Amino acid sequence: MRRRKDLAEAERNKLSPYRGFWSVTLGGAEGLYIDDKLGNFEPGKEADFVALDPNGGQLAQPWHQSLIADGAGPRTVDEVANMLFAVMMVGDDRCVDETWVMGKRLYKQS
User: What totals of helices (H) and strands (E) does the chain contain, helices first?
Assistant: First the structure.
């Protein structure tokens, strides 16, 4: 009985790409009580964000992306989630394509 309960709890506690990116965007803003100012792209909110390149970073990452989207780019929300998961797991600063602060681009990867 204990093992079944442990497996069920482990399943509930998995970090999905959706939950992971929500936690570092709107979820984090809600936790800090500043979701009225940032956390998503609603009009009137501050625009501090990074644009990610899912093929940047380690050599294994583009190979992983090719398994998900077959080189044509993601076609479904689940394929996008899988690409975000790859960035979460093996991505690094080389995945950052652009950085925006207060609606102004401050960095563009060359």
Answer: 5, 3
Give 48-87 pLDDT, tens digit per residue: 999 988 777 777 666 666 666 666 778 888 888 888 888 8
Q: How many other β-carbons are positioned within 10 Å of the β-carbon of residue 45? A: 16
Pairing outcome for strands 104-108 and 96-101: antiparallel
Structure tokens at 101: 């602060």
Q: How far apart are CA 36 and CA 65, in angstroms?
A: 34
Instruction: Tell me the C-alpha distance between 82 and 99, whole Å.
Output: 22
Query: CA nearest 87: which of 31, 26, 17?
Result: 17
Q: What is the dihedral of CA 55, 99, 20, 78, to 10 degrees?
A: -40
In whole angstroms, give the CA distance from residue 48 to residue 107: 12
Structure token pair of residue 7: 């497996």
What φ, ψ does residue 10 adopt, rounded to 5°? -60, -40
105: confidence class by pLDDT, cuts 50, 70, 90: very high
